[in-house]
What we know:
- The chain is mostly helical.
- It has 15 helices and two strands.
- It has a two-stranded antiparallel sheet.
- The model has no long low-confidence stretch (mean pLDDT 90).
Amino acid sequence: MRETKDRRRAFLLLTPGVLWMLLFMLLPLGMVIYVSFWTQTTFAVKPELTTASWERFLSSSTYLTAIGTTLRVWVIVLLATLIVGYPVALFIGLFVKNRTLQTALLVACVIPFWTSFLIRVIAWRPMLGTEGAINIILMKLGIISEPLSFLLFSEFSVIVGMTQIYCVFMVGPITFMIARIDESVIEAARDLGASFGTIFRRIVLPLSLPGVIVGTIFVSVMVLGEFATAASLSGRKVNLLGNIIVSQVGSLKWAFAAVAGVVLTIIITAVIALALRVVDLRKEM
């Protein structure tokens, strides 16, 4: 009798979550997959199943190039956020002992999010333009003789903008994991004569790895689905999968947009699955 009640209670507790996943994830995803096989005409789509949209997508150099560009930008931005974010997280989580100061520094990292996403993106234009702040400073210092044209409306500007926007999502999880490290473990290593490099390599880095994986998942999901930053900072010269989806929806080509959406979902799922194979988060968190 008690086992029956426990099972019933567990079922009742799981029901809202299961219904939420069915209604707002599995059902929409299933619909997108279904629409991707519809017949696409010039300005309409018919519910007649065909693989024409998939064949066109997978045989088009434009779409395949967009996949390659998306993956390249994702890898570079992921590495950039890790290179920039890990030292910041290491400083806040390991060297700042005061909890209040730790919180204040983390809040400082989040301050840019108090403004609109679009404002944060567009703010890079006067910084990276040929007559922008960076070019002016470099020219006055005598480092360059003429403005650098690649800083804006290029893949470089997109990477810079995304790195700045999403770096905080790498800093937060890593800081949380580093701050959890028992200070007595580090003190014991120091007492045994371990250098900072050894302590970092054998204690801090392994224990912070779950935070790196969580940050990787956060950054990956957002960067792979990006379209606004690329559209604003590249002058539409950088075409990501997200931009393909937006343009296809704007042209009422729902089947092509659905195909791109399914491909993007597969890529994101593969990235998350690969990240979760590196570290078992249920065991480490």
